[in-house]
């Protein structure tokens, strides 16, 4: 059999790829390698949870409230409820006497009920403490008069926060104050007591926006323990004296419109001090709507947790331009503020108002516990708080344990 020659065998020739195709494929490979390297080496941003960001931001700020007795505890709860309704994002801190507890012993144990409510419903950070108290003192002796409202200065001890808003409890909050946390850096910001006739008007401590400072707190404590002017202590004005001595020339001044409206403004005939000018027309509805908070001050008429003497109401209420018949917008708003406070006190705290004092015994007299004190035993209102006390007792005991 004859063998085939090589030139007779089938020829298997490798076809040459077009150069353009080879370049395109190589280019795509290079591009892919480049993109992979970029993806591996490029610093990726961490993902953030919106809720955690809000929580972190909110934890830098807090509202500071205090309770020295059952009444001020209730009034602090009214403010906590308002902050919750207005959607405040800041923490809430409550200072109260360290001998109080969270064990609800029975349906009449309002203090424990309200503390548990503050903790569970309003997510308040509870701070049991020894209350600050200033005693009246003359040059020669101690007078035996005490004022525990200086406990508000405990807010300076909250050094874990960048900024704290400290509030008095005899107010009605009409809006969130969270915008004050964004003020420029300052040790303290306060409105002026626009109702004072002396100029410059002093700073008022009913609202303080502070930068917590432990050294500042210790300085306040030293002054407090040294005693104060008996007249100021008895009138619960020593706290104003304290902040003005320290910050009169250095505080950032907040506008009293809208941060410091008095209920007594609706009883005045001349509103230039509040309006800040003599040409603006007085509009009670506009003033009420623009206000952020209202402070109850209509002495000698009692504070809103004490009922009005009927003779006192007729004498002190807004006079509607001298008209004794009918009503006017000033009177409607003024009465609404008091009635709203009393209704919320009943609904939230299950506390009724303290019975009215004798009008003739307080009219024209110096300020006394009969008109603005908080140590009176208020009647209890029956309702939801009594019904839930049994279940709350078990929760309170378990939480303490």
UniProtKB/TrEMBL annotation:
<keyword id="KW-0472">Membrane</keyword>
<feature type="compositionally biased region" description="Basic and acidic residues">
    <location>
        <begin position="381"/>
        <end position="401"/>
    </location>
</feature>
<keyword id="KW-0812">Transmembrane</keyword>
<dbReference type="InterPro" id="IPR029044">
    <property type="entry name" value="Nucleotide-diphossugar_trans"/>
</dbReference>
<keyword id="KW-0808">Transferase</keyword>
<protein>
    <submittedName>
        <fullName>Glucose N-acetyltransferase 1</fullName>
    </submittedName>
</protein>
<feature type="transmembrane region" description="Helical">
    <location>
        <begin position="27"/>
        <end position="43"/>
    </location>
</feature>
<keyword id="KW-1133">Transmembrane helix</keyword>
<feature type="region of interest" description="Disordered">
    <location>
        <begin position="363"/>
        <end position="401"/>
    </location>
</feature>
<dbReference type="GO" id="GO:0016740">
    <property type="term" value="F:transferase activity"/>
</dbReference>
<dbReference type="InterPro" id="IPR050587">
    <property type="entry name" value="GNT1/Glycosyltrans_8"/>
</dbReference>
<feature type="compositionally biased region" description="Polar residues">
    <location>
        <begin position="368"/>
        <end position="377"/>
    </location>
</feature>
